Amino acid sequence: MIEIKNICKSFSEKLVLDNVSFNFKRGKTNLIIGESGSGKTTLLRSLIGLNSIDDGEVLFDGRDFHKLKIKEKRKLRQEIGMLFQKGALYDYMTVQDNILFPLTMFTEFSIEEKINRVNECLKRVNLENCNHLLPSELSGGMTKRVSIARAIVMKPKYLLCDEPNSGLDPKTAILIDNLIQEITEENNITTIVNTHDMNSVMEIGESIAYLHKGKLCWQGTKDDLINSQNKELNNFVFASKLFKRLKKS
Amino acid sequence: MNKILKHLGKYLLMLNKVFSFPEKRTIFLKQLNLEFKKIGLDSIGIVTIISFFIGAVVSIQTAYNFESPLYPKYLIGFATRESLLLEFCPTMLSLILAGKIGSNIASEIGSMRVSEQIDALEIMGVNSASFLILPKIIASLLFFPCLIILSISIGLIGGWVGCQNTGITTASYLYGIKFDFNPFYITYCLIKTTVFAFIISSVSSYFGYYTKGGALEVGASSTRAVVYSSIFILLFNFLLTDLLLA
Q1: Which of residues 49-108 of A touch B (CB under 8 A)?
Q2: Which of A40, A141, A167, A219 could cross-link A172 (Cys pair, CB 3.0–4.6 Å)?
Q3: Taking the CB of residue A116, how many other CB atoms lie within 10 A of it?
Q4: What is the C-alpha to C-alpha distance for residues B14 and A205, in angstroms, rounded to an integer?
Q5: Contact A205/A178 with Cβ under 8 angstroms?
Q6: Does domain A2-88+158-248 have CATH number 3.40.50.1000?
Q7: Does B122 touch chain A (CB under 8 A)?
């Protein structure tokens, strides 16, 4: 479980996160939703120290990340898998080398064991026989799936995804969403997905936090969301004509 | 002044992160090997061409200025050697390499920063500064002196080719390049080169590592890396010359 307590973060004079507290549950796909600029990415980056925080606590199963020493932070980060918005695959490495990288860096497995693990992960994301492709040869959906494979290769306890289906067609986006949810349930890990895609919310939103202007404005499940009377949330969720019609019906 | 101190502090903090023991020796050696190729081997061509023509032009210009029959002809070889060894090869070549290698380092690291590849390294628990920058610095420190030795040799050959039309015999040119040789000049040249290698690789890495934004900022970082590396090379050239030769 990841618990955040009273997180505050500002850039220069601008307050981006204002006293945000939330529990991200284990074995569930936890979603952070909100408009662009509401502080979602800042929150996700603050959880793992890519941004410092001004105040508050981030507890990974009781361990306060921001109070750990540098070496302890690096150790904890080895328990975290992260899927970045643009994939963040290393350009000069093949798909196999990208996924092998954390294994080579942090484990003492033999080469056969490492290759087997890479193949398992590629199979899990339905990308068998892509080992020797370069990131430049992959489509958007394939890049995201390789990135997921790299994130899960070390069997992480925590999986963080920053807008995993941005720039993807609806079918591939749902495929990625379902993959993230299946991996979460199979491995009983704590997953946090940062998104503003309403299809994702309706597909995998087991536990949702809605951020509005840096504040936690609402929390609940996808079923609660449909019936919510929260004005800001409704303006965000039911912004499109399709969703407005769905709400009425 | 505040800004300069802020940059200096950030640069020193980055170096503190860079000079930590590599997490995995095999991966470090693999990276080092890659950098030897990118920084060293890929620069041999440009170093050879530039050194040859600099040597040729220096000898022709020296011959042009030594027209008086009172000057012995071997002084052309002597002056060519001294110019190449003391200034042209270590300083001019370093300025050219700051353009080639410095911009390459800054844009490579900068692109990795804006495409979140450095964040991905950090999330895995890797010391990204050490992983990316240390092999570049070590490769530069080890390979730049070799490039400069090569440059001096090619420059002297260029000087010989250049003076063929100026009426100097090969024998007097060869006598000139051996005349009154002070071995300390080689030490001086290599000390300067090593310092310049460190400046180019670390300053360029600094600008790349702290790039923020997108493609435009990567370009700006790359330009800044070349400009500041060049300024520091000229500054340290003055300081080291004053310290070692004055």
Answers
A1: 49-50, 73-78, 80, 82, 84-86, 88-91, 101-102, 104-106
A2: A141
A3: 12
A4: 40
A5: no
A6: no
A7: yes
pLDDT band, very low/low/confident/very high, at A197 (cuts 50, 70, 90): confident
The tokens describing A158, both together, are 């925590």
Asked if A89's CB is within 8 angstroms of B116's CB, the reply is no
A105: which chain B residues are within 8 Å (Cβ-Cβ)? 23-24, 27, 124, 126
B184's CB contacts (< 8 A; 6+ apart) are none
Segment B62-86 shows an average pLDDT of 88
pLDDT computed for residue A222 by the predictor: 83
Query: Strand pairing of A29-34 and A207-212?
Result: parallel
Do B125 and A86 count as a contact with CB atoms less than 8 A apart? no
In degrees, rounded to 5, the angle at the alpha carbon of residue B85 between the alpha carbons of residues B84 and B90 is 90
Distance (Å) of CA A57 to CA A3, A30, A66: 8, 18, 7
The structure tokens listed for A77 are 């980060």
Nearest to A84 among B27, B119, B126 (CB): B119
**3-state percent helix, strand, coil for chain A, nearest multiple of 5:** 45, 25, 35
Write out the two tokens for A149.
């494979």
Q: What's phi and psi for A233, nearest 5 deg?
A: -60, -45
3-state secondary structure of A158: strand
Enumerate the β-bridge partners of residue A15.
A10
Report CA A158 to chain centroid distance, whole Å.
Answer: 9
What ipTM describes this predicted complex? 0.83
Tokens coding A35 = 């408009």
Sketch the domain layout of chain B as residue ranges: 29-245
Whether the predicted pLDDT of B181 surpasses 80: yes
Say how far apart CA B160 and CA A204 lie, in whole Å.
76
- How many angstroms separate the CA atoms of B144 and B49, rounded? 16
Q: Tell me: the pLDDT tens digits for B220-243?
A: 999 999 999 999 999 999 999 999
Q: Are A73 and A57 in contact (CB under 8 A)?
A: no
Tell me the pLDDT tens digit for each residue of A207-241.
899 998 889 888 888 888 878 888 888 888 777 77
- Predicted pLDDT at B96: 94
3-state secondary structure of B190: helix
- High-pLDDT (> 70) share of chain A, %: 97
Residue B143 · residue B44 · CB < 8 Å: no
The four Cα atoms A98, A102, A103, A108 give a dihedral, to 10 degrees, of 140
Q: Is the pLDDT of residue B48 over 70?
A: yes
Task: Test A74 with B26 for CB contact under 8 angstroms.
Answer: no
- pTM (2 decimals)? 0.86
